[in-house]
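Task card 7
Instruction: Convert sequence to structure tokens.
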Amino acid sequence: MTTGDVCPGCFENQPVAGICAACRHVDDEVKDPLPISTRLHNRYVVGKALGAGGFGITYLCYDANTDTKVAIKEYMPADFAWRQNLSVGARTKQLEGHFDQGLAKFEREAEILSTQGSQNLNLVKVSDVFRENNTAYFVMEYLGTETLYRYVEQSGPLAFEDAYAVLSRVMDGLHYVHSRLGMIHRDVSPQNICILPDGRVKLIDFGQAKAEFKGSRGEKRSQVVFKDGYSPPENYDRAYNGAERASDVYSLAATFCFVMTGEEPPAANTRLIMTMQGESDPLTPLLQRIPERRARAALSLGMSLKMSERFPEVREFQRAIRPREPGEPTGPLPFGGGASPVPPPLPPLPSPPQTGSWQQPPGPSPAPPPPPFPTATSQAPFNPAPPPFSPAPPPFTAAPPSFTPAQAPFPAPPAFAAPAPTREPIPAWGVWVAVCAVGLLSCLVGGYALWANTHDGLLAGLVSAFSLVFAFWLYSLFRMKSEAG
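Output:
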């Protein structure tokens, strides 16, 4: 194929009046792309821009050596790079360090994908990495434009089992990226999952991939890259510089949510702000539209705003959201508690699903209907075999009834009568104190009066004694009356 007789955007048809009937290519909407028909590495002819992300631009290109279409990713960070003619460079002198550091990382991780990533069938193949125009490029197989996002937009949400059958391939590929390549994708979304005509599913766009390491809050990043609805909250934080597997788990769970509901989840920063203000999480109503309890619980944990509450590994999330096999007992979910049982190993991957091909797995066999109630005209079937011998039961002897004498009617309870009020007796010691006080006072007063008038001490003593006896008599009389009353 020669590039002169085809559309420079899609390399398919001859444009009529400058407009291709296949791709309707007129002009690129991507900011500052390479010019159409630019030749790279003396081999690849640049076509239209397929898309742009935070770290670069992806082009549809034509490989003159193999006569095939390829996709090429160019390192072109939009926030701090610009293009002069074909050459790419940092916008300012202060940003040159960030540009060079990002360029080296982009090239290094592209080399890892080209040497090791091709061993997994669920990842896009990287065939070439090279430097040109003061930047770096890596060449990938071109998988077409049918993405999972586009499929759901056109055909509607998928059932739980169909969604798992499609995304289980993505989970296998992402697990390989984490465990074998030591990288974090950081851009898992329905737009970056391609569906091939033969039913294969592949994860693409590793332009934002980053080597895994535990994050910390320190020096601010030069660029924050996120995709609303699919990026976890830590991707919005300029002070967070880590790359951990739980971040990809969040994006994977958000992709599941979109595939099963047909609606993109709310942005993580919006959820964070609303929950911090005491409002309800806007993700909850979306999850309630998913009928499967197992899926709702797994997605809720997978999309937790706190990284420590998410599944730390893709495999753990895959086991948690795996549809239950026919006949598998229902019980506590295989996550969210120490006493939960360990889930069984994953079954072999099923064949690629077709739309509407899934059927409800058979449940337990229904119980047989009860036998018809016998009628007067029904007869028992003939049974030539004699019934088995059984000894005759002992004769029934009724126990004599026990005699219970008649009982007199229970007397009515007496009418309630309030108790008569009682008077507390005067304490003895109080009475004795009063008597002694009266007697002594009488003695003193009487004796003093007689002695003052007569100066007769004997008479004064007799009067005092009489007064004491009179006081004792009064005490005795008062005591008898108090005891009688």
